[in-house]
Each structure stands twice: as structure tokens, then as C-alpha cells.
């Protein structure tokens, strides 16, 4: 294939081949090439408000811990003890004074410095001062906390820049976390992302949602690291309020669904080659109008989500059937899918894989 014609333009684009949606080897490649090389949403600031508050997560194959230090600074570390690879924490927690390894009790400060190691007096040239947990990059944005494992991941602002400005006067930083809904779905993580990235399926999959979005005015814009689908809202005063719906997808696995007075983050986590978890976290403005819509919003969201789950599970069966060859994309409606697939193609190529 000629380098200058690859990847093809939108008018000649095809979807990603089915082989990328199946098999452990492909997912292992993506853990390295995609998840370990991108900003990953791991928490919201309410979980990390005070010194010693910590969150544990898995980024690709790497266990990580994010902890607020005694000095108030948020730090991230690889959650792997320097003794024999035990975990510093197994679950999220509040107000820890130090990080005690769960295996043999080596103790690190909240700043990642080894402070004590029981019964190690007989070890020659062993000094706790020489041992630190490997740090990782952390960034706080609009009440959300992100980490990046690799120094090659672009600066956070380069990835997320422009979103807060675009949605004004909606103010994400003024919204408060309310709750999480999690859905485990029998499809590859990319099937869920692909489905999010186009409104093409709206009239066929979402009869209710089609009534509150304006399909003719539904628009997709592409940016370096994210895409934005937007639509005016109609007939939705009780559910979403009046204004505009913004659906951001930020590479590789974060969605920000923003309505007047409400943000819902979605994080798509692979559980296996043909299974993923979708975490919905709800954040609301504190004004009475936004608060009054919470119940209707969540009920409606659950209905739409069930419709998406059903179609995604069916698509995964199609992809694994052995009968599917990558099909043509609709230039008018699927530019977001094309954009995501090209980001993946670039990430795979950087890892020595070609899509
Ligand atoms: S592995 Fe951490 S103390 Fe042994
Ligand atoms: Fe959908």
C-alpha cells in the first residue's frame, strides 16, 4: 500500500478490520500501544480531597495509585512494591498516613519514598533512602483526575484543550459528583466506542432519543485528540433542559456527555477481548433546575444505554462471525468513527502493528 494514500480519506474510508476486535493478543497489544500511551481518567477530585486519600486503578497492564500527599500535592505511582512486587493498596481509601505494602509491610511515605523495611538489617548496602516508587504523570482538570504512564503522551492541555471554553456557559468545575452506574457488556471495548461516535444509528436504535435530538442539525467536529458531536435539544425540558447536547469522545476511552447543568463521564475499560465495562459517572450543577431533572435524566440514560448495549452485543457477534470484511463508512455521519480508527491505526503503527 502506498504511504501517501494511507489511511484513506473520509470519502474512501473503511472501518477497522474485524481482527482488531477479537483475541487476547490484540488486546495485549492495545494495552501497550493505546492505554499505556494516553491520558487515562482514574478518579474525581472528591475521592482525593485530603492528604492520604488514594485511588487505585489499572492502566493497561500497570497497577497505579494516585494519592494526595501531606503537602496537598496529588501524585501518582506505579502500585508495585520495590521489594517483590506487592501492592501498596488494594482498594481506594481515605486519610492514610503512609503506604504499607500488603505483602511484607514495607512502608512508603505518601510522597513515594521508602521509609521502613522490617527485618532487613542483614541486607548489605541496603538503604531505604535509595528506594522510591516510580512516579507517573497526574493531571487534574474540571474536577476530574487523569494519569499517563508514558512520557511520550502529549501534555494534557494539548489533548483536552478547548473543551471547557467551547461549552461555556456550562461550567463543569461547578458540578458535583452524584453517582456511578456500571455496565458490563459482551463486546470489544472499541465496539462501544465506535457506536458512541456516530449518530447514524439514532433513528434505528433510539426511538426515544431521536425525539429530543435534532437529527438534521446533528453535527460532528474533529479535533486533534477528540471529536465532538452536538445537537440542539428539543422537547426535553424535563429530561435535559433546553439548549444543546455535547457528546465529546477523547481518545482513547473517555466520553463526556454534557447537557445544561449536567455532565456524565463514560470510561470504557476492556475486561477481555470481547467484554468491556462502561462506567457512567454523573455530575450535576447545584441549581434547582438541574437538580430537579436528575431522576428523569438517569432513567432516560438507562433506557438509551440498554438500546446501545443490545446493538453492541449483536455487532460483536457479527465481527467474530468470520464473515465480515471491513465495510465503507458514511462520510456524512461517520467522520467520528473514521477519526478514531485513524488514531488507532497510528497507535498500532507506532507499536509495529499495521491496520
Ligand atoms: S512486596 Fe512489598 S513488602 Fe514485600
Ligand atoms: Fe447509541
From TrEMBL:
Which Gene3D superfamilies does the record cross-reference, listed alphabetically? Answer: Naphthalene 1,2-dioxygenase Alpha Subunit, Chain A, domain 1 (3.90.380.10), Rieske [2Fe-2S] iron-sulphur domain (2.102.10.10)
The cofactor named in the record is:
Fe cation
- Xref: PROSITE patterns: RIESKE
GO molecular function ontology, one term from the record: 2 iron, 2 sulfur cluster binding
Signal peptide extent: none
The keyword Glycosyltransferase belongs to this UniProt entry's keyword annotation: no
- UniProt keyword annotations, A-Z: 2Fe-2S, Iron, Iron-sulfur, Metal-binding, Oxidoreductase
Q: Which Pfam families match?
A: Rieske (PF00355), Ring_hydroxyl_A (PF00848)
Coiled coil location:
none
Instruction: Describe the location of the Rieske domain by residue ranges.
Output: 39-147
Q: Which InterPro entries match?
A: Rieske_2Fe-2S, Rieske_2Fe-2S_sf, Ring_hydroxy_dOase_asu_C_dom, Rng_hydr_dOase-A
Entry keyword Iron: yes
Query: Can you name this protein?
Result: (2Fe-2S)-binding protein
Organism the protein comes from: Dyella thiooxydans
Per the UniProt record, the lineage of the source organism begins with:
Bacteria, Pseudomonadati, Pseudomonadota, Gammaproteobacteria, Lysobacterales
